[in-house]
Amino acid sequence: MQEEIRKSFYKLHLSIVISCFTSIFGRLITLNEGLLVFDRLLISFCILFSLLLIKKRFCFVKLKELFKILGVGFLLGFHWLFFYGSIKYANVSIGIICFSLVSLFTALIEPVINRHRISFMELFFSLITLSGIMLIFHFDSRYQLGIMLGVISSFLAALYTITNKKVAVHHPSVTMLLYEFLGGTIALGLIMPVYLHFFPVQTLIPSFRDIVYLLLLSFFCTIGLYFLQIQVLKKISAFTVNLTYNLEPVYTVILAMIIFQENKDLNAAFYIGMGLIILSVILQSLSVVYSSKCSKNL
Predict the structure, then answer these.
(1) How far is the C-alpha of 253 from the C-alpha of 265, rounded, in Å?
(2) Structural domain of residue 231, as residue ranges?
(3) Stretch 247-276: mean pLDDT, rounded?
């Protein structure tokens, strides 16, 4: 039993490393953010659809529910669009650091949608994160556009997470994921003519290297990551998994420094801001651990 738990923790940290490459591939792929996200969604949908057909697990959903799931997929698609836009217009480190604002937007939006009180503790921790990002924004004008796109991405990610949780109650998670990919593909497909009018490209066809990166991004960082997380959750609690995933921004920044030498482009304001963000993550983690222990004692 202990050996299985140990292997699950190895898989958990492997899944975090794989998720970090979601950002890394965003920098490596030369397509603009619109085409990148459209291709990722389309390829991921085709891979997952094929797997479900082979395993005979594909199922239809009612039309009313289908529109709900497709709507959630719209949010996913636009979240990825702004996230990769943040990476393209700034860098990997800025993009992933801005993603830390998801907790702030969740703390503000979820009480409104689910009609419960705001957690002032969560709000306090999130404001520490916000102060770190504002510090970077104020003292490094090179990345202001990337930061603004990253903030919008975080807002959409929070909205996606909350709405996905509400809709997913009645459907298997793999079915949700499949139709969300379809919804995102439709959404990006509809806006792509307008998007490419304002952000023209020389070619719509990705290079061979981009195709390889897109396949790796879709197969390993999207579908593969999803199934790996399912395996981990069979042995480790969701609480532990979510807590451990707080390491993702740290891992991603370290990888970006190793692969792209981004440390050469980052100034003192970034490191101070990142320090504040890491502090908020630590405080939030300690708060969750403390709350968990208290609930068990009761």
Answers:
(1) 12
(2) 2-297
(3) 85
In whole angstroms, what is the distance from residue 184 CA to residue 186 CA?
A: 5
Residues contacting residue 148 through CB under 8 Å, at least 6 positions apart:
none
- Listed residue (157, 168, 186) closest to 65, CA to CA: 168
The two structure tokens encoding residue 140: 């490094």
Q: What count of other Cβ atoms lies within 10 Å of the Cβ of residue 242?
A: 11
Please give the helix or strand (H or E) that residue 252 lies within, else none. Answer: helix 248-260
Contact in structure between 114 and 178 (CB atoms under 8 Å): no
Q: Are 146 and 91 in contact (CB under 8 A)?
A: yes
Q: What is the DSSP string of 47-77?
A: HHHHHHHHTT------HHHHHHHHHHHHHHH
The pTM (predicted TM-score) of the whole model is 0.88
> How far, in Å, CA of 30 to CA of 216, rounded?
15
Q: Which residues contact 198 (CB under 8 A, 6 or more apart)?
A: none
What's the rounded mean pLDDT across residues 265-293? 75
pLDDT digits (tens, 9 = 90+) for 45-83: 999 999 999 999 898 999 999 999 999 999 999 999 999
pLDDT for 177: 95
Are the beta carbons of 197 and 90 closer than 8 angstroms? no
Identify whether the C-beta of residue 161 lies closer than 8 Å to the C-beta of residue 55.
Answer: no
At 115 the pLDDT is 74
pLDDT digits (tens, 9 = 90+) for 180-205: 999 999 999 999 999 999 999 988 99
Residue 295 CB: number of other CB atoms within 10 A? 8
Residue 116, SS3 per DSSP: coil
Length of the chain: 298
Structural domains of the chain, count: 1
